[in-house]
Amino acid sequence: MEVEIKVEEFSKVFTSIVLEALPFIIIGVFLSSFIQMYISEEHIRRILPKNKLAGGILASMVGLVFPTCECTSVTITKGLMKKGVPVNMAITYMLAAPIVNPLVILSTYYAFNNNVKIVALRVAIGMIAAIVIGYLILILSPSDVSNIMKDDKYVINPCTCGCCTGNHKGLKPFLYHASAEFNNVAVYFIVGAFLAAASNLIISKQSLISVRSPVVVSTIIMLAFAYFVSLCSEADAFVASTFMAHFPLCSVMSFLVLGPMIDIKNTLMLMSYFKKSFVLKLTFLIFAVDFILCSLII
User: Fold this and answer.
1) Is 38 or 225 the better-scoring residue by pLDDT?
2) How would DSSP label each residue in 136-187?
3) What is the DSSP letter of 274?
4) Domain ranges for the chain
5) Which ranges form a coiled coil (predicted)?
6) What CA–CA distance (Å, rounded) separates 130 from 138?
7) Confidence (pLDDT) at 204
8) Cα-only R_g, the chain
9) For residue 10, with 0-12 CB atoms within 10 Å meaning exposed, 13-18 middle and 19 or more buried, which class applies?
10) More confidently predicted of 100 and 6
11) What is the pLDDT of residue 247?
């Protein structure tokens, strides 16, 4: 009987993760394909600031006017980098967009009983962390994206529909590109969702609350909890608010900042596009920078 309950609980969590994220992944795939096929490098160069610091700041705010979740931003980032967007700007966008998303800001505001301080801290730390991590990645990784990205698997076959006049920018090549990209990332996402659902059963909120630890240890625990449970950024604030009575603010904030940036399913999605060494380096930097910034909260 207990096994049946566990299986049923696992099925519910797994299904909710998949259904919650799938629409956003599809949106991200289509946007990435659109960028890849219809936006030229010249267009991007005209828009982006020449100064990398200004570009990083701008990238951290794009999510305010172009709301995306953590699943969508991964595929969009891949498309941006393939089109020549500097690595630090693309990574900054990917990390900050799910935090500065207006829906996430609003849900955080309501989850913490209209506490503006929590909202401001989450947005500020998220943006600063994203900019810093983007710059560190720029320093530690090769500037040539071919050295950090896997070989492009989405070579568009010549269109045979007779309506594309050889430029491969018709509907059929676009759908071919989007479906190929979705097939690739979906495998990694499903595996990530499976692991996240399993983690939800293994790591319970009650077990974390029962742990009495120093601030440093509790912050590490909350970082790990955010990574493994893989909550949607629009909903994680409601879970985080229940920890306020048991954990210090810095620990709760580390949960709110890290979750939208990286989790199990996103790590595997990143590995579908980027080389393992780059993903591991990025994941380490996200944990380290978030830990340091959140530890500064008094």
Assistant:
1) 225
2) HHHHHS-SSGGGTBPPP--PPPPP-SS-STTSS-SHHHHHHHHHHHHHHHHH
3) B
4) 2-295
5) none
6) 12
7) 62
8) 20
9) middle
10) 100
11) 84
